[in-house]
Specification:
The protein is α/β, with parallel strands linked by helices. It contains 11 helices and 13 strands.
């Protein structure tokens, strides 16, 4: 079987399902477990740090690990960087069969930091039986030094290993999400998947196949299709005249507006357009703001300051006749999920905050598919990840 540590709401599991395989996920968060259950994914609700390793011995083909990123993420306080020497020590000790986690945990500034060492506890236990056949791990870029330490251990155990930083946008994800990746295998040479997309489209050449332009938010969300409303012209409180579609200070969403018919379904690039929408990644002063014609920046959730909102501005920079822009509008869980390459009908459980937290912490299934397909020996067809937006 395939063991998925810190399985979250099912990014890896969704990719495996598309590839025709199922995993077993270990996850503690109640709402992520409920999401996984609704999605039909096998789950053990447990603390990965407390669960025994012996049940997996003799039956584990692959191991996946995406430890919680809150201690390391730029969206948080990043105490993981302060704790990093302790995590290195924990990895070294666990790789030698010494469990010093309790002592090291008391010295950690953020107890979540040490979770990045947990995969080594499982790997050490499985290695005695020549398992697993392959390993895939993912985290925020600042964790790369830890992945390199894992790589040194795994190579000493006979694995071929690659570590590095990949940008999800290079693999068709409508989000420039950079992540530290570890790929290891006992049976094949480990190397990163070939990028399929680029910031600027590249034609085929003698040196290899070309790459498609990065997928934009508008493409992923279906904005601009002839049969779908486009969030660039407002039918009230702005270009269309009439009353404001939302009261001042309300927390309505673009989806609410579309459902209520308050967005005019006009083509994207016409002289009638006065508004262009962008996604602001958080409420902080230097937040990333991207046009809907670009991929999103990395989606962060879990704290009010990390709330993503749609913000409007004149469609053409030189325009001076556009009315005042509407207030920012909060992104919906469905929209955020689509930008992570989850299908539109993915069964997110919990209230909005719980859903957003799951989405922000998830691995984009399309990126996961690119990483997993070579280990499974099956071809990946990106069309199989159609989002049904």
């Amino acid at each position: 079987m395939i063991l998925d540590l810190f399985a979250g709401p099912g990014g890896w599991s969704r990719a495996l399902a598309v590839l025709g395989v199922q995993d077993i996920g270990l996850e503690w968060d109640e709402w992520a477990c409920r999401t996984r259950s609704a999605a039909g994914q096998l789950t053990v609700r447990t603390d990965v740090a407390m669960y025994p390793t012996w049940p997996w011995a003799g039956r584990t083909r692959g191991l996946i690990a995406s430890p919680p990123c809150q201690a390391w993420s730029r969206a948080g306080n990043r105490l993981g960087l302060v704790d990093q020497p302790l995590v290195h020590q924990a990895i070294e000790d666990l790789a030698a069969g010494r469990d010093t986690r309790d002592r090291l945990l008391t010295a950690c500034r953020d107890p979540r930091s040490l979770l990045a060492a947990e995969p080594m506890r499982y790997l050490y236990a499985l290695h005695a039986g020549g398992e697993p056949e392959w390993v895939v791990m993912e985290e925020v870029p600042d964790v790369l030094p830890l992945w390199r330490q894992y790589a040194a251990v795994l190579r000493s155990w006979g694995f071929s290993v690659w570590t590095g930083i990949l940008n999800a946008a290079d693999f068709g994800v409508p989000q420039t999400r950079r992540r530290a990746i570890l790929l290891a295998s006992r049976v094949r040479t480990a190397h990163p998947p070939a990028p399929t997309h680029a910031q600027v489209a590249e034609p085929d050449s003698l040196f290899g196949p070309g790459r498609t332009r990065w997928v934009s938010m508008a493409q992923a969300l279906g904005w601009g299709a002839t049969d779908r409303p486009v969030p660039t012209v407002c039918a009230g409180g702005g270009p269309g005249g009439g009353p404001e579609p939302f009261p001042s200070g309300s927390r309505k969403t673009l989806s609410d507006a579309r459902e209520r018919g308050t967005w005019a379904p006009l083509p994207v690039n016409t002289g009638e357009n006065r508004w262009s929408w962008s996604l602001r990644s958080n409420n902080q002063a230097h937040a990333t703001v991207r046009s809907v014609q670009e991929p999103a920046g990395t989606l962060f959730f879990g704290h009010r300051a990390n709330e993503c909102t749609w913000v409007a501005g004149p469609a053409q920079a030189e325009r001076t006749d556009a009315p005042a822009a509407p207030e920012p509008i909060r992104i919906t869980a469905r929209e955020a999920g689509l930008l992570q390459t989850f299908p539109a009908d993915y069964p997110w459980a919990g209230n909005k905050g719980q859903q957003f937290s799951q989405i922000g912490n998830a691995v984009p299934p399309l990126l996961a598919g690119h990483l997993l397909a070579p280990h499974l020996g099956v071809p990946l067809n990106p069309d199989d990840f159609a989002l049904a937006a």
